[in-house]
Amino acid sequence: MDDPKLDHLRQLLEQFLEADMDITASALVAASHKFKHPSDITRPVNRGPLFHEYRQRQARLRDLARKTDKNAKGKLLARLAGTEENLMLMVRRNELLIATVRSLIRTVGTTQGLKGWLTMSADYAALRKELEAMGAIPSADPLPLRPVAPSRKSEC
To answer: What whole-number distance in Å separates Cα of residue 64 and Cα of residue 69?
Structure first.
């Protein structure tokens, strides 16, 4: 025995489920022109079980969404706070390391020159490129030249 209203009911139930609307027999009757009373949905042998199946599916989906939202939101916020904290710590460490490297470069350059850098790093060119990319190479601050005193020999 084919029930033409069964397909219509299935479509209505799918629409309610997708829209997260409360699945009740009264709401389905109000949304349909084919059903006149809630018992037209719940009493027939082929429609009643389908109606109850969709109500159970909706209850499971809503329960899962509630559990997921509660757990996921809290965990996500905690992870985000931890990540932001780690990022700030890494930024502070990076700034400290850059300042230290700049000081080291100046010290080595002043005391030992390029020879000192070459002994510190076997691959000086690659190291210099990386440090330049990080902004760790200090800008050239040339020392002002002292005025040259005239030599006595030229006076004669």
So the answer is: 8
